[in-house]
Design brief:
Layout (H helix, E strand, L loop, with lengths): L2 H19 L3 E5 L11 E8 L5 E6 L2 E7 L1 E6 L8 E8 L4 E8 L3
Antiparallel strand pairs: 1-2, 2-5, 3-4, 3-6, 6-7
Length: about 110
């Protein structure tokens, strides 16, 4: 093959390889306990990636907590309005990973 085509081929492989290797992965997410009204609870989410990874907790479309590599969401004085699904999203420039946890009343 001509050198230019070979260089393009190598460049395409490197782009593909870097995209595959740099996928963010959630490595830990809290399994929330059953909670009673008035209690406090913290939800932790940790992710890893070669490039910086942003980690964000959501309830519905609302951002509740965010950080770099880790996000901790602390809910104080729980009410029944706090129960439900919480979504942790880890994203970088390549992709995202998501995990959902459910906070239930005791």
């Amino acid at each position: 093959m001509p050198p230019v085509i070979e260089q393009v081929k190598i460049h395409m492989i490197l782009i593909w390889f870097s995209a595959v290797v740099d996928l963010p992965r959630i490595t830990y997410v809290t399994t929330p306990p059953l909670v009673r009204k008035g209690q406090n609870v913290s939800l932790n989410c940790t992710a890893s990636s070669i490039s910086p990874v942003n980690v964000t907790w959501y309830k519905g479309n609302k951002v509740l907590s965010a950080g770099l590599s880790t996000a901790v969401l602390t809910l104080k004085n729980i009410t029944d309005k706090d129960w439900g699904e919480f979504l942790c999203v880890a994203n970088n420039s390549v992709e995202k990973d998501e995990k959902t946890v459910v906070l239930k009343g005791a």
